[in-house]
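FORM 12-B: Structure-to-Sequence Request
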């Protein structure tokens, strides 16, 4: 009889430990999620050559809010969001927004050039032929992926897929108003 009681007590102790471990894991995951969303981290110190042949570094754009959009002409979501990206750029460029559209390495340069010309893209476009920019931003593979960088050069938001433009505009207003 005593061994059965000890066996039941042992099972209850193990259940208690499993529940405690699960609770700790949930709290740790929640804290990690909160920290990753609340902390900014520095944008990579990269340079690129835009389609006009101008060498530009992200560091040289400090003092401006910058959007870096990884896209491809073969990406239907990218093509669909581009008119709203142009509209967003035009709304905020005079308030201190700069924009860099980074064409992915697999995107044929002649397709990119044609897209840029036929749609009169008003912002900087670069070809990431060797994936150096995508790698620098955390090995970007999915398009569209857009980073919003504050005036101090910190990434404050990463969108994978098309952003909710109302949310993006609110973020841009806040970032542009910051000192």
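FORM 12-B RESPONSE
SEQUENCE OUT:
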């Amino acid at each position: 009889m005593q061994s059965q009681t000890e066996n039941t007590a042992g099972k209850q102790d193990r259940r208690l430990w499993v529940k405690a471990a699960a609770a700790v894991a949930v709290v740790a995951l929640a804290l990690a999620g909160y920290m990753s969303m609340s902390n900014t981290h520095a944008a990579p110190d990269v340079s690129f050559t835009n389609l006009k042949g101008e060498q530009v570094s992200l560091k040289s754009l400090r003092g401006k809010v910058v959007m870096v959009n990884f896209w491809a002409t073969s990406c239907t979501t990218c093509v669909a969001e581009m008119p709203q990206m142009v509209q967003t750029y035009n709304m905020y460029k005079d308030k201190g927004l700069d924009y860099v559209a980074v064409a992915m390495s697999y995107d044929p340069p002649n397709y990119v050039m044609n897209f840029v010309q036929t749609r009169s893209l008003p912002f900087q476009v670069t070809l990431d032929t060797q994936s150096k920019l995508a790698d620098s931003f955390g090995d970007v593979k999915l398009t569209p992926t857009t980073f919003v960088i504050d005036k101090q050069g910190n990434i404050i938001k990463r969108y994978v897929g098309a952003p909710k433009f109302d949310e993006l505009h609110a973020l841009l207003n806040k970032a542009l108003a910051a000192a």
